[in-house]
Amino acid sequence: MSKFQQGGSLMKFTSYFGSVFSYDHDIVASPNKEIMCLASVFAGIILCILVYRSSAVLSSLLFNKAYGKLSTIQKIEWNNRGISTFHALFVSFASFYFLIISDIFKDGSHADLIINRSSSLTNTALGISVGYFVTDLVMILWHFPALGGLEYVLHHGISMLSILISLLSGQVQVYILMVLFSESTTPSINLRWYLDVGGFKSSKLYIVNGIALFLGWLVARIFLFMFFFYHMWIHFDEVKEVNALCYYFMFVVPSVLTIMNIFWFWKIAKGMVKTITKAKHTKRA
């Protein structure tokens, strides 16, 4: 290869890499914004630690009968699920606010393309979410596979990378928030586990929660993802304008998450049917 060809290849590579964070460049270059992003990530990590420790203290006081019987690893998972519940509630409310109540992502409300819109508040919310995924992923790997198998590592890994790319580039935050709203099903998942280990698997609350989980999952992780791809389709002229890394992640990550959501939905549906059938047989007996 000639020096001219080598130089041309280098220029192409540099141009391609530079395009990854070309839009809203000041988000990457501005020290203030970098500090804000880092601060929000560390805030997320600190919040997770505080919630974990608070869960241990409050659970021993309020639910000592159930909590005290748990093994060491079960207590770790109990407190860890307290973190995921806190994160789920936070990102669900934040996503609902930014997508529905606020006008930041509404069509025609701003001159910028919808995929290029961001704000200090959305950056802070996404940074806190990254802090959660970092904390939870470290705990999963440290206690692997007690807190979750490879599917959880995959889920957390691609979620964290997607949010980071969006946070640093300032692009596609509307789609990141849509996906994060699907975390609204997490409290029901965790309540199901709490009731199970607490000895309330045959209770009415367990059955009602199972039905709520089924319906919530259908709306937040099946129908919402269908709307996600529909929204991308009708805004594809804008989607094509994002940087290369965001573009590929927008197609790959939601597709992987959709497959995982359908698989988990099938397991939830089977579990719900099994629980309802068992409850009917028990009532007749």
UniProtKB/TrEMBL annotation:
Keyword RNA-binding: no
Transmembrane segments: 35-63, 83-105, 125-145, 157-181, 211-233, 245-266
GO biological process: lipid homeostasis
InterPro entries according to UniProt: TLC-dom, TLCD
GO cellular component: endoplasmic reticulum; membrane
TLC domain sequence ranges: 73-277
Keywords assigned: Membrane, Transmembrane, Transmembrane helix
Top-level taxon: Eukaryota
Membrane topology annotation: Multi-pass membrane protein
PANTHER family linked to this entry: CT120 PROTEIN, TOPOISOMERASE I DAMAGE AFFECTED PROTEIN 4
Listed name of the protein: TLC domain-containing protein
